[in-house]
Specification:
This protein has helices spanning 3-19, 38-55, 59-74, 79-86, 92-107, 128-149, 161-169, 171-176, 214-221, 237-245, and strands at 118-119, 126-127, 188-192, 198-201, 209-213, 233-235. It has 266 residues and is of the alpha+beta class. It folds into 2 domains: 3-154, dinb family like domain (Four Helix Bundle (Hemerythrin (Met), subunit A)), CATH 1.20.120.450; 161-245, 2-Layer Sandwich (Nonspecific Lipid-transfer Protein, Chain A). It is globular, with a radius of gyration of 18 Å.
């Protein structure tokens, strides 16, 4: 079994435990992420879990799913509406069960799969390893809005290193996606894991670096937080520029939330 698949289930299970006590009505509450409700978050996660799952061994099915999504958008139907329609409007506790049962069974299909196998996706093809790691990253990042809404400070595990790696690996993508030149001086990262272990990436530098909690770095690159709402130490022009626009997920360039917009609600 790929460790990343296990990590994906661990993160999904944590969100499931958070949501289990909620009533159907609670799932209609709106988060600070684009006013998405908890229902919207779960519909999104389930739809793309399904997409990643079928990409494992059914190229025709994933290409058809992506084509339908694209055509829907061209007709003016946004992704949220398309997703809800494809899930027959599943909401509340029924949606929670649907999502939970699916990802739990889905993980088993990653046992024995070649992590380097190439899979079709909306953008360039990606490896199995990248695909399941992306599911972990998206689950972790979208779940943040739910934790915030419910006023819960999440207790991360060191498996969030997967998110940090994606964030670091998409340094160049952040600028390319915005039509800008990629700086030559990739910042040094010195991040403290939830366990207290220190993770270091890139060439050491005293003038171009980012230092602090790995969780906060993950929140910035997934655009769950504005850099100004963290305690990260950012030094140097390139490090500062990157943290102002960092985007580790695919799609058109997105503007990070303004300072103070996304936070734990009380």
């Amino acid at each position: 079994m790929l460790q990343q698949a296990i990590d994906f289930q661990t993160e999904s299970d944590a969100l499931y435990e958070l949501l289990k006590p909620l009533s159907d009505g609670d799932f209609e509450r709106e988060t600070l992420f684009k006013d998405w409700s908890i229902n919207t978050v779960l519909q999104h996660l389930h739809f793309f879990n399904h997409a990643a799952h079928i990409s494992l061994d059914d190229e025709d099915a994933i290409l058809a799913l992506l084509a339908e999504l694209r055509e829907s958008g061209e007709k003016g139907v946004d992704m949220v509406a398309h997703t809800e329609q494809k899930l027959d409007g599943a909401k509340g506790r029924a949606l929670l069960t649907l999502w939970h049962d699916y990802y739990t069974a889905m993980v088993q299909d990653y046992e024995g799969v070649d992590p380097k196998k190439r899979l079709k996706w909306a953008g360039p093809d990606m490896s199995v390893l990248s695909s399941i790691t992306a599911r972990l990253m998206e689950t972790w990042s979208h779940a943040q809005a739910v934790y915030d809404l419910l006023g819960v400070k999440r207790q991360d595990g060191d498996h969030i290193k997967n998110v940090v790696v994606i964030g670091n690996n998409t340094f160049g993508w952040t600028f390319i996606n915005r039509g800008e030149d990629v700086p030559d001086d990739k910042p040094f990262l010195k991040l403290t894991a939830p366990s207290g272990e220190v993770w270091q990436f890139n060439e050491p530098s005293d003038s171009n670096f980012i230092e602090g909690a790995a969780t906060e770095f993950g929140q910035v690159v997934t655009q769950c937080r504005n850099i100004g709402d963290t305690q990260l130490k950012v030094v140097g022009a390139t490090a500062t520029k990157w943290m102002a626009v960092a985007q580790c997920f695919a799609g058109p360039p997105r503007t990070p939330p303004a300072a103070g917009v996304r936070h734990i609600q009380t």
